[in-house]
Amino acid sequence: MKRNRILSALMAGTMVLSLAACGSSASTSTEAAKPAETQAAATAAAPAGDTKKADGMKVGIAMPTKSLERWNRDGSFLQKQFEDKGYKVELTYSDNKIDQQVKDIEGLIADNVNLLVIAAIDGESLSQVLAQAKEANIPVISYDRLIMNTDAISYYVSFDNYTVGKLQGEFVRDQLKLDEAGDKKYNIEFTAGDPADNNAGFFFNGAMDVMKPYIEKGVLNVPSTQTDFNQVATPAWDTAKAMSRFQNILGSYYSDGTQLDIALCSNDSTALGVTQAIESDYSGTNSVIITGQDGDEANLKNIVDGKQTMTVYKAVANEAVATLDLGVALLNGEKPDEGLIKSAGWNFDCAYDTKSYDNGTGIIPSYLLVPTVVTKDNIQKELVDTGYYTMDDKGYPHPVG
Ligand code: GAL
After folding, report:
1. Ligand 1 surroundings by CB, under 6 angstroms
2. pLDDT digits (tens, 9 = 90+) for 218-230
3. Cut 0.85: pTM above it
């Protein structure tokens, strides 16, 4: 308590200046921020004394694993954002091991961090350790994945997770013109994410809500009959697990020559496994529509090569910027709300949501960024022209940062 009051006093001046600096440049532009511009804007918005005020303050960032590409990008963007503002940063990766993440967070608390930013491995397993954070008056931002059953969470920063799934479903609907299907019928299989990840259900429901009417009308058929989240989930979002489940499906329901038209996958790591299964175990010659999420390098290569059809891209550079501004406000002892979006002057879209995310202890106020559909046709415009990726001379994109 005492420590936080001192911190609040130290930081108060900084935030007022910072808000004033950003206030006039508030923008509702739908154009995504370029990472380079974002960094520049963040730096420009920092008043001269900012770095000095942050001196000594430490931010603990707990990421789930390095084995999934996006978390590497999240970790380094977050670290850079906070360090550029003069904060010390301790960044942990917990190898997708729940006990390890609990230990890592305990370590961050013991190291007297002033703010915790956590992307949980298992949303249900952090209640005890976060009770310690609450006891020590450390504000906690639930980053990207909602942490369940703890009142230690101050805020949630993520993308609109339901919309991610909805975009995947709408893509399939529009690609196959399902509303004008007539007598045509298509076969679809679903692959969802980790049941321990609260996002996974949102992605699946978003997609299923679009697909369901067509399944009910018989336009879409699911030969495996696996349409429940628990049947199609992939523990740890693991590529090899997604692959072996899909090989089983292909072996059991498609080996008689049945055509697979759509593999609706919740993210890129699972899409990668499904694509491998289709390459090795599917005898059909049609090109299967495969969805994904994240814009992982291997998947973008597959999109360029025509092996995956789309990915839902989430600009994690912007997610880090939103987390920085929210984090600084919390370190100032403020209670940010919708006003933060304007005062911070972000040049990317973000909604303040106080309805959608109940973590079991009540609604967690959320800042939700907007995802984008990326296909072969708009990689250049959405990923390269925006500065998020560079294109190599073979035409494959590689993430910046
Ligand atoms: C989700 C995240 C996705 C994807 C997935 C696998 O929580 O929102 O972007 O990366 O985890 O790590």
Report:
1. 68, 70, 144-145, 193, 197, 199, 237, 267, 269, 293-294, 314
2. 999 999 999 999 9
3. yes
